[in-house]
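Q: I'm writing up a methods section and want to include an example of the input and output format. Could you take the sequence below and give the corresponding predicted structure tokens, formatted cleanly so I can copy it straight into the document?
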Amino acid sequence: MQSILTINGGSSSIKFALFEAGDSLRRILEGGIERIGLPEATLAVKGSDKADNFSRSVAAPNHTVAVGALMDWIEERIGGVALAAVGHRVVHGGPKYSEPQRITTEMVTELHQIEPFDPEHLPEEILLIEAFQIRFPGLAQIACFDTAFHHDLPRVARLLPIPRRYETQGVRRYGFHGLSYAFLMGELARLAGTEAAQGRVILAHLGNGASLAAVRDGKPVDTSMGFTPTAGVPMSTRSGDFDPGLVWYLARTEKMSAKQFNEMVNSQSGLLGISETSSDMRDLLECETQDVRAAEAVAIFCYQAKKWIGAFAAALGGVDTLVFAGGIGENAPIVRARICDGMGFLGIELEEKRNAANAGVISSETSRVPVRVIHTDEEWMIANTVCRVLGPGAVNKRD
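A: Here is the clean output for your methods example:
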């Protein structure tokens, strides 16, 4: 039986999952190396076999060492020959890559060239690809681009209101979380039927990274993230949208460099910046009654998400389905309730008990708009995409 490994590299982590590809995709195990660059880095694995459930310390001062430790474990656990392919989540495909495809030497060279599009993710993702090429030279590797879902946005949503010459350089709204959105649309069709998936759908992927997308007739109409994943709603440490004049103001008043500004809006802002205590929504909800800073961070997050839902309802000419996903979207009833509060004019009404139970449908019987909570699964989407790219025998069933 062939296996497919999925790799999702972040700035301080490498997540992975192993699937068995038969008549359907079966997840064998999943895990990751967390806290890369810190002394207490860990490799944790959870699988159907009890022997696969463990967590242990690993030396991971950087991604190069971390991926080496991961590949050592992969060879120990399954052996390189058992793998049919590796699927990589590549956050940014730039203007060229709008479809998943096999990774070639030429593609790696081009990805290096577009590193300035996403310096927060691409360097580490390329490093992972190159490391697998060296360790497993004959193994097929497939790039699954997070920007692909939004590639054909209408021009009115895609173009940025800056001098037109930058469009020829690839500067545009790209949007992200595309693998999640593609999965959610497939799940919506499976759970609610094709007609629902072809309607006016607003998807809210709310987690450490958070964005929303508007979809009509199964095609993306707009999305909150922009040229980079920093735009849109406030996130755990990312700022989301604000007045770009702040760049010049801080350059004059604090002599802040472009690099320092980038660090601030990506790593020191959002929930962490407002609360001054934590980037984790769970921590903030726990202490919001005692700490006004935490309460304001939660309130701003909910308010901005509500604004984007309203804006996308206007762009779509109404809304037929609202979907919550992501770590916050799937597990924080109070956040969903605050976002949806006062949205009865759009036909959105939650049922308190369903929402508190994180039910699949959390809207009330009288709500004109079904509100759903769908567990997103980017790893399954990557594995399924790999099967499709590999050709005959592609797997597209849910296990």
